[in-house]
Structures are given as structure tokens and as C-alpha cells.
Amino acid sequence: MNRKNVVFALLIGSLILGAAEPSSMKPVSRAHLCITEGQIKQLSGARMSVIVPKMRAFVTDPTLQEVEAHFTYLGPAGDSVPLASGEMRRQFGLKLRAQDGCNLVYAMWRIEPTQELVVSVKSNPGMTKSSECDAHGYHTIKPTRDINLPQIVRGKKHTLRAIIEGTTMRVYADNKLVWEGIFGAEPLAFNGPVGVRTDNGQFHFELFAGIPAAGQKGASAECHKGGGEE
Fold first, then answer.
1. CA 128/CA 35 separation, integer angstroms
2. What is the secondary structure of 11-33 as a DSSP string?
């Protein structure tokens, strides 16, 4: 098989398997995060750690709507607390179009009590603070394609990546496409950078964000401490 045919075969194979697309994302350090709730500790290199029950953060630099995390679940957080809905859930997630604590998009990899990938929009027009919108305005987006999700194993590194292009969103877990769906116009009414969220788990993680190239325009948001979303 000649070189041209080999390249073509590899391309077709990656499309069939739903492999993650090439990316030029850059690592994000703690110094470039606005931590609106909880605490993050900087470890060596780009690695960070979270052990608190709730952590919410977004990238302070302008970003594209592309974000990836390499994370290791280390076990439950001490003093775990229920979500505003009353449910006790352990999860690691990514935020996109994070305009503020009331208007953003989530891709959450739930660990307990059930392992699943959930994409949701939180939309509360006219509200900006969690104290205003609380846990209101959520709705789950049904996927047009939903592929078996890998199982999170304690102590093993996993990857989670989310991309929004127009009204289409794709989510990759461990470098395989596991979710694809189409939004309505609602998320297009707000815009903001990408970020990260954890609930009731201890994690080590590295975060990567799509940074605009020359001629591209990124999204940003003002950093207000205590503006974490429920």
C-alpha cells in the first residue's frame, strides 16, 4: 500500500472510531483561572489539585469554545455536600460559553451514583449571579449521537474534551467521541470563556483551552469572586 493510501485509510479509520480531532489547545495554569467557588492548588508543571466539595472556575484569557481536561479521580471529597437539587453527586465537568454563573453550557462526567455524560444549558436571561438564579434555568440537551462512555476508575487518568461549533456540540471521553448534539438558539444568546467544575470529588487535573489565533476572536468574562454557579 502506497503512502497516499495509508494516510487515507488512517483518516477513514479515525472517523469510524470517532477519534478526537487534532487540536492546538494550550495548557492553563491556576494563575489564569478565575476561581469563583472553592479552591485549586497548583502542583508541578500544569497539574492542579482540588479536594473541596465544590469548585467552579473559568479561564481569564479570551478562549475559543474548545476545552479539554486530563484528570484523575482520587476518591470522594471530605465533607461532601448535596447539590442545590438535594442530590448527592460526584462529578467532573467542563464549562463552555460561561458568561456568568447563570448562563453557560456544561458537559458533566458523572461518577456517582451513576456514571453518565450529561450536557446541559443553564439559561437565565437578565440574571448574572448565583444568588439570583440559584439552580434554576437548567435543561438537558438530548444527543443526536450517544456512544458508550468509558468507566471512570479511581487512580486512573482520563480525558474529557468538549467543542462547540455554531449550534453543534461534541464531547470526547478518553479520546473517543461519546456525545454529539445540536442546541437551539438559547445558548447563542450568551457567550463567555471555557472553564471547569467539580462536585464532591478529589481530583488531580490539567486543563487546556482553545486560544484564539491571529484574526480569531475569543470570548471572555469578568472575574467576580463568589460568583460560582449551582
1. 16
2. HHHHHHHTBPPP---EEE-GGGE
Cα angle for residues 14, 20, 24 (degrees, 5° grid): 125
DSSP-derived letter for residue 132 is H
Contact 108, 118 (CB under 8 A): yes
Residue 124 CB burial class (10 angstroms; 0-12, 13-18, ≥19): buried
Residue 103 corresponds to which cell in the numbers above? Answer: 448562563
CA nearest 227: which of 100, 70, 68? 100
**Listed residue (59, 105, 103) closest to 219, CA to CA:** 59
Per-residue pLDDT of the chain (230 residues; tens, 9 = 90+): 454 443 344 344 444 445 555 557 999 999 999 999 999 999 999 999 999 999 999 999 999 999 999 999 999 998 999 888 888 999 999 999 999 999 999 999 999 999 999 999 999 999 998 889 988 999 999 999 888 999 999 999 999 999 999 999 999 999 999 999 998 888 889 999 999 999 999 999 999 999 999 889 999 999 976 555 55
| Cβ proximity of 152 and 115 under 8 Å | yes
Phi and psi, residue 89, nearest 5°? -135, 140
What span, in angstroms and rounded, lies between the C-alpha atoms of 204 and 8? 37
* 211 vs 62: CA distance, rounded Å: 7
Q: Cell match 471572555: residue?
A: 220
Say which amino acid occupies 112. E
